[in-house]
Amino acid sequence: MWVGTFNGLDRFDEKNGKFIHYKNDPNNPNSLGDNWVWPIFEDSKGFLWIGTVRGGLNRFDPRKNLFTRYKNDPSDPKSINDNFIFSIYQGKGGLIWVGTNTGGVNFFNPATRVFEHFSHNPNDKNSLSDDAVSAMCVDKDGTYWIGTRSGGLDKFNYKKKIFKNYTYDPSNPNSLVSNSIVVIYQDRSGILWLGTFSSGLMAFNPKSETYKYYQHEPADSNSLTDNRIYSVLEDEDGIIWIGTYGSGLNRLDRKTGKITHFKSEKTDSTSLSSNSVWSMAEDNDGNLWLGTFGG
Fold first, then answer.
1. Per-residue CA distances from 141 to 125, 138, 248 (Å)
2. Contact, 87 vs 134, CB < 8 A?
3. Residues 6+ apart with CB under 8 A from 135
4. In this predicted model, what pLDDT tens digit does every residue of 44-62 receive, in sequence order?
5. Burial class of residue 218, CB neighbours in 10 A (0-12, 13-18, 19+)
6. What are the pLDDT digits (tens) for 84-120?
7. Backbone angles phi, psi at 86, to 5 degrees
8. Residue 230 in contact with residue 238, Cβ under 8 Å?
9. Residue 66: which H helix or E strand, with range?
10. Which of 26, 190, 229, 244 has the most neighbouring CB atoms within 10 Å?
């Protein structure tokens, strides 16, 4: 299991319970480019793609134990255009697409080592809605979905190179509840779960383009614990797990509609280590692993 931290990259060996640490070495160009690690993605060939805050995109070869760095080179228009990486995903044809803090989406072809850039153009309604790209997903139909910090949700047609934008519209009850998308997760039925920065969770049906909303309601004990949604996961039983910023973990049973809350309790060592749940994964035994601000 791979874990990104503010102080490097860790590999956890479940068999012996030990961690192997990978950090930046200024004297080694084949080390991690920066110790502040954000997204991690394993591609179809087993390479690990690591996004950092200052060190650009890194590819790790676990067989050779070597990192390859891809950083912005102002003199090279085919290089990555931002060194702050928010999100990473693999698309069709083995392309690695990279969401950045200020440079929009970069499509990287590992064979040619060329980055193709897509940025917001205020004069083009078919361009990317915002250059801060916080989440990405390829759905079961091969459609590219992009979540942005303030421009809403984009559906991207790679062949035509055009974006369709979905935004919050206060006059439309069937629109996004927020233009700030933090996470995009597709479940097995094809629903896209959209977590927002401060407006709760949306279950978006991409075929009918309709939404179901889940938000925190102070007077409703069966609502979410918080509207700041940082992670979403469907487990093997179809249960939706929702990680929040500051208010713990939520378990949504879609058959009954019941939401169960899990929080960190100082007097309970078996409770969550932190109420901010940043990431989640399920292993082959059905165990859930949670990345939190407390370990």
1. 24, 8, 33
2. yes
3. 86, 87, 99, 146, 147, 181, 182, 183, 184, 195
4. 999 999 999 999 999 999 9
5. exposed
6. 999 999 988 889 999 999 999 999 999 999 999 999 9
7. -95, -40
8. no
9. strand 66-70
10. 229
Buried b (16+ CB within 10 A) or exposed e, 68-78: bbbbbeeeeee
Q: Residues 6 or more apart from 133 whose CB is under 8 A from it?
A: 86, 87, 99, 100, 104, 105, 146, 147, 148, 149
Amino acid at 205: N
Q: Given pLDDT bands bounded at 50, 70 and 90, which one contains residue 142?
A: confident
Q: 3-class SS at 224? A: coil
With tokens 């790790």, the residue in question is 60
Q: What is the DSSP string of 46-103?
A: S-EEEEESSS-EEEEETTTTEEEEE---TT-TTS-S-S-EEEEEE-GGG-EEEEESSS
The reported pLDDT for the residue numbered 33 is 94
The letter for the amino acid at 15 is K
DSSP assignment letter at 31: S
Query: What DSSP character marks residue 150?
Result: S
